[in-house]
Each structure stands twice: as C-alpha cells, then as structure tokens.
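**User:**
My hope is that you can spare some time for a protein that puzzles me. This is the protein in question:
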Amino acid sequence: MITIAVSRGRIFDEVAVLLKKAGLPVGGTCNESRKLIFEYPKYGIKILIVRPTDVPAYVEYGAADCGVVGKDTLIEEKYDLYEPLDLGIARCKLVVAGPKGYSLDSSKVVRVATKYPRITGEHFAKKGITAEIVKLYGSVELAPLVGLSDVIVDLSATGETLVKNNLVEMETIADITARLVVNRISMKIKTAEIREFVDKLSDVRTPGNSGKRGKVPA
C-alpha cells in the first residue's frame, strides 16, 4: 500500500479529480470528514490528511511514501525528497504586493510581511534592496493596512484578495503549482508501485494543465 500525504482544501479537491481520472476514485468525503487517515485497500492507497506545510516532513521522515505539496513550500525549506512530477494543479503566483502608489527603492529599508522569509530575503537581496522581514503565519494582507509592513510577499491565485484589501501586485517572484514528492527509501522499497502511481498521474494530466515531469530514479 502506498501512503500519500495531502492537505484539505483546494489541493485535495484537484488531486481527487486527477486520481479519479487515473482510475483511483479515492476522494470520497475526505474533505468533509474529521478523520485524518483514509484507507482504500482495493486501490492500494492510504491517504493522510495533514497541514500543507507539514506534507514534506511526513514524506521525508517516512510517515508517508508520497505527498502532494505546493512548490512554494519546497522552495522555502530544503527537503531531501524526490520530486518526480509537477502535477500542474493548484496554480498560483508568489508575488510582492503593496499599497497602490508604493514603489520599491533600494535607497531605503523595506519592511516586508510574509510567510516566506527565506524566499523573500533572497529575492530582495538579488534586487539590491535591504529588507526587514516580519514573519507572519496568516492574514498577511492586513500588515500594510495597519502599518506593520510596507509590502507583503504572499501567494495570489486570482488577485481578488489583494484588490479587496487595497493592495496591488508589484512583482511576481515565482509561478507555483502542486508537486508530487516521494520518500527516497520508499522509492527503493516500493519502486514498482510508485513508478506505476507516477505514470498514472502523468497520463491523466491534460496538455493545458500539465507541468513538467522530473526523472524518476531507478
């Protein structure tokens, strides 16, 4: 049985669609239930419901064989994982946003509120701008409105949340999609099962919704 770590919400909804197309209709009521473990012996799959940022840890330390996680999480933290497949789902952008009329200036320190301190620090350093980073875990859009920060770095799917909070997108740092990640030891022990699973997911991605496929180790 392959154990897969995934988070509730948008990513799970879109993963469930892919799994169904692949002949693995294991979605059921996972998103509505309070249960955290769902087993599907018929399909050889067990699903663990975890927080989005915890998916890589569950996979890296072997609690799950595979996981589905946003590329933003993989960029922010360094994990020892295989990343064989860009699923092309949960598309969004990691952006710099701020109040209308605000401009970034390398002559002054910019205070930035974000959930992504490492990505943010590297981005502003490349631009030659000194950034004072305020690490937040939620409601990042509020920070410029109350004077906590000048700008923010956060995910944006449609830009609607930014508009509602009187913020405008200033720069795109990275385009983000959900990725399939695999535990290195599991890849050696369950090679055939995981290769088959990767192939099935790869086959059901439509041309307009597919990302890149990485090399699956032997």
